[in-house]
Amino acid sequence: MKAYFLQSVGKETRLELRDVPQPQPKDGQVLVKVHAAGLNRGEFIAGHGLIAPGAAKAAGQEAAGEIVGTGERVMGRAPGAFAEYVLMDRREALPIPAGMTFEAAASIPLTFTVVHDMLVAQGGLKAGDWLLVAGVSSGVGVAALQAGKALGAKVIGTSGSAEKLAKLRPLGLDVALRTRGADASLSKNILEATGGQGVSLIVNSVGGSIVPEAIKALAFQGRMAICGYVDGVLHAEVDFDAVHAKRLRIFGVSNKLRNADQRAETVRGFAADFLPLFAARKIAPLVDRVFAFAELQAAKAYMESDAHVGKIVVKL
């Protein structure tokens, strides 16, 4: 079968298409014929450490397709997803809601389970809370906006692009902050927007560059989720007095060191809380662009250009 491999070389990640044997499922696994697979920015950033330097690794993290032998339509986390066939942990193979395309389904598994972890499992977001999504036009950012609105929160989104922010208004973005030029003071603008109270939860996929301002923008007992660092800034100055006085909490969201049981627990939470929202059409994943499987290199370049709003998907 055809499968892409990814290698980390210096500050770059490089793709290679190979012919490899079809994988064979073990106990607890299902073999899935892939119809679509989602791109995730973190996999393609060498600094995120998802692809360690050295030999190339099977590329791709999430897929949608049919279970071989039963034809069941499923979506889920799937290491090596950029391939004609892939293995899934049976506990993570979720049914695709009726009427949903494979391309839309492939944009859901990683993004929305991460968002569930941030907003529900760890973030404790409630109806009426203020949520700040830094980098709101990314795949995770759009998903956090959609899930936050479905949970009844008021959402502030930041982006360097006024055009991208405008595209997200129809999804319910309450406050759009352009984080370049006149709107560079994040905390000042957020405090003004929230009547001085600040935000209950911050989704930070931008990185360390915004941490000092983000801490100023947090309300009493506020939380900040760290889910990425596209700015490449891995260290930040932290105001301990503010963390102490406001009883703040900063937490990470990653599957990198989690075991299979822990990952499956997150999937169960997503299935219980979010899957019904997709089935009821209360959340519809935003797919920016679909590329052919043979165009994965172009899809990667498009993601790295930062032109997209929402998810990028490849179709087999």
Structure write-up:
- This protein has 316 residues and is an alpha/beta fold.
- The protein folds into two domains: 2-108 and 285-315, Alpha-Beta Complex (Quinone Oxidoreductase, Chain A, domain 1), CATH 3.90.180.10; 112-252, NAD(P)-binding Rossmann-like Domain (Rossmann fold), CATH 3.40.50.
- It has eleven helices and 16 strands.
- The strands form three sheets. Strands 3, 5, 6, 7, 8, 15 and 16 form a seven-stranded mixed beta sheet that branches. Strands 11-10-9-12-13-14 form a six-stranded parallel beta sheet, with helices on both faces.
- Helix 3 crosses helix 4.
- The longest helix has 14 residues, at 260-273.
- The radius of gyration is 19 Å and the shape is globular.
- The model has no long low-confidence stretch (mean pLDDT 94).
Overview in brief:
By secondary structure, the chain is α/β, with parallel strands linked by helices. The protein has two domains: 2-108 and 285-315, Medium-chain alcohol dehydrogenases, catalytic domain (Quinone Oxidoreductase, Chain A, domain 1, Alpha-Beta Complex); 112-252, NAD(P)-binding Rossmann-like Domain (Rossmann fold, 3-Layer(aba) Sandwich), CATH 3.40.50.720. It contains eleven helices and 16 strands.
